[in-house]
Amino acid sequence: MPEDLLAHKPQRRRFLRIATAMTGALAGCSDSGAKKDAAATMEETEPSLLGKIASPYGERAKFEKAKRSTRESKTPAAGSSGTPLQDTYGIITPSSLHFERHHSGVPEIDPAKHTLLIHGMVERPLVLSVADIKRMPSMSRIHFVECSGNSGGEWSGKGGPDPQRSHGLASCSEWTGVLLSTLLAEAGVKKEAKWLLAEGADACKMGRSVPIEKAMADAMVVYGQNGEAIRPEQGYPLRLLLPGWEGNINVKWLHRIHLADQPFYTKDETSKYTDLMADGKARIFTWEMDAKSVITAPCGGQKLEGKGFREISGLAWSGRGRIEKVEVSTDGGKTWAAAQLQEPRYPKAFTRFRLPWTWDGSDAVLSSRAIDETGYVQPSRQALIDVRGTNSQYHCNSIKAWKVAADGSVTNVEA
Amino acid sequence: MPEDLLAHKPQRRRFLRIATAMTGALAGCSDSGAKKDAAATMEETEPSLLGKIASPYGERAKFEKAKRSTRESKTPAAGSSGTPLQDTYGIITPSSLHFERHHSGVPEIDPAKHTLLIHGMVERPLVLSVADIKRMPSMSRIHFVECSGNSGGEWSGKGGPDPQRSHGLASCSEWTGVLLSTLLAEAGVKKEAKWLLAEGADACKMGRSVPIEKAMADAMVVYGQNGEAIRPEQGYPLRLLLPGWEGNINVKWLHRIHLADQPFYTKDETSKYTDLMADGKARIFTWEMDAKSVITAPCGGQKLEGKGFREISGLAWSGRGRIEKVEVSTDGGKTWAAAQLQEPRYPKAFTRFRLPWTWDGSDAVLSSRAIDETGYVQPSRQALIDVRGTNSQYHCNSIKAWKVAADGSVTNVEA
């Protein structure tokens, strides 16, 4: 006898009665009879006319309303929008819902005119067209990108009221492009080159310094996202992808790579994207995104309709490799159970976790903690503050909790 | 010294001169200086104004024109459209470009009103809402779907002029939903039930018979596709997914499952979707899609710009499991080389293969053959005909070849 997944259904008995009557009328498996009865029962909800014809480029159903969070600003070109994680499935983020963070808005770039300059401490400076890059050996990898300011509001203890507003500056895509090491081999990196500047073609020429070790390890210059061209908001036509590293350094609209023997100390790695500690000193070059997770169902902003079975589901990721384990608590952290992890688990990618749960109708506090392949365990907010204080808005990866009240409403728990 | 990936570049020497001059002017790695010079060199191609602000739901770049193939018809609701495989990257097909095959068009279904009836030889007939199904234990899997009529034109020997028209009725997505076995366990399948009818809510009530073994093995009822709700063209809000089986039996707009002790012999498994052999007999219930592959670059419809390095890339898949090997020939099948396979390789999913190639400017014939984990080797067209004749339009999985002419044009080779 399977678990009763449908005990919650208030009209279960009525459904059974209808369906049993139908089955009775259908002894002998007459298909045409079954069709007639089923049609009679369900006719009010079923279309009977011919539907829309095939189309060149499809759109989502008009009933689907999930959208990125945007907000009013006096400087909207320096803005962001968050992925509605609670409305996504699996590990792929739909490109139309991938989070955004722009410093000068989204430039419109004609790929036929765009070039990538590789110069500085190289043997053979290069100017590459997008077509040049697409001829080269390519690869596809599934990786998350996360803004280091994601969950910054969690430092306050008040926190975001739903996954979109607490964790929505993280998304995951299948990226396709060329290994940066392939391009650098063509240019011939000089021995003394230890860093490179990656610069975008947006109005502010967003630039970041990248150590040569990361450039040679797994960095990519990508032109594909989820099977088609990378989206304008993600850097069309070329983006630097540094798997596992904070979003800002994954420079979008990439047009220049400058090799040098020292970092460039750009605005966005000095006045921004450094972590101010309690003692007034700032950490710099804190690139890796630590292991993190969030429950996306049930979650803040939702209302549970009745007691009974439901699945707890969420996302976990680590900039340091593979997610090895996710533990889920339904009692505010007193006890933890190992969640099921969706296979295969990619390193530096979203991992979907799931745990069966039957809600008994009383108060419950749901939380998750991720453990990555380095053995690192996602910490509590207090544990983070003990080490880093509360001056920084960046790199908050504390455990997130949602409270389920007896009336079924789910809200953020102040940590 | 790396392979010279850029030997093809006609202006390579000019690029080198410009870039070398710039590097010379930048001795000492002055970042601001480098910025100024790069900006001067590239100003005509770079936007300098603030770009677009963040948006609720993004769109692809206006420069991207890839589209599904549609065609004129007197009965357009019974039509199809193909994926432009030559314009896709990686293994995920963008949902907007997933192939279509409709028998009565795409119905518009309100998910709040849609139900799935499970009845017939079950202990507890059920009527499930979409919300009921979303509460249940879920899973995500990457699988291809392929129309059994895909590549039907190849039987003639003339074949499609590009991958979209020869192989475009195949696409691959991350699907999320519930195992059908979970739903059937709730309903309680009676011992005598050996088959089920899956029926759609489109105007023609498209229906197919599914053996209970497949239903219990890996069949899913899916509501998610590539991170968001399944698209209307793919069965919104619910689709039956039978991994590896011909597209038609993956019933879209699923609204009814009827358990029985025999198949239902519906129109679409008798007058259609059977394979007429040379002797006049027809094969029925030929569900599995055999191993297949196609080179998507370089491919028919393209023109190579000059000799030199370029990557050969393509897609392989098998309805019987994982792709174990793909071999590529550039000399019309005289010799074969093992291509690189993109990891991880999912069973019953697209696998991207790649082979480095340097075109010497002479005639070349490019082809690929897939080998799956059962050891099955994708056959030549003649080998298929020897066994099955040429009466059927279905299940053609022969090796596809593209001819590169000395002028760089690439065309279909008549096999």
| H/E element sequence of chain A | HHEEEEHEHEHEEHEEEEEEEEEEEEEHEE
Specify the number of helices of chain A. 7
CATH architecture of the largest domain in chain A: Alpha-Beta Complex
Distance between the termini of chain A: 41 Å
Largest interface, C-beta within 8 A? A-B, 142 and 142 residues
Q: Give the class-level CATH name of the largest domain in chain A.
A: Alpha Beta
Profile the largest sheet of chain A: 5 strands, mixed
Helix content of chain A: 10-25%
Number of domains of chain A: 2
Say what the CATH topology of the largest domain in chain A is. Sulfite Oxidase, Chain A, domain 2
The strands making up the biggest β-sheet of chain A line up spatially as 4-3-12-7-8
Please tell me the overall pLDDT of chain A.
91
Category from helices, strands and their pairing of chain A: alpha+beta
Number of strands of chain A: 23
CA gyration radius of chain A, whole angstroms: 25 Å
Oligomeric state of the chains in view = homodimer
* CATH homologous superfamily identity of the largest domain in chain A: Oxidoreductase, molybdopterin-binding domain
- In one word, what is the shape of chain A? globular
Strand content of chain A: 25-35%
Query: Which residues of chain A sit in consecutive blocks of at least 5 with pLDDT less than 50?
Result: 13-45
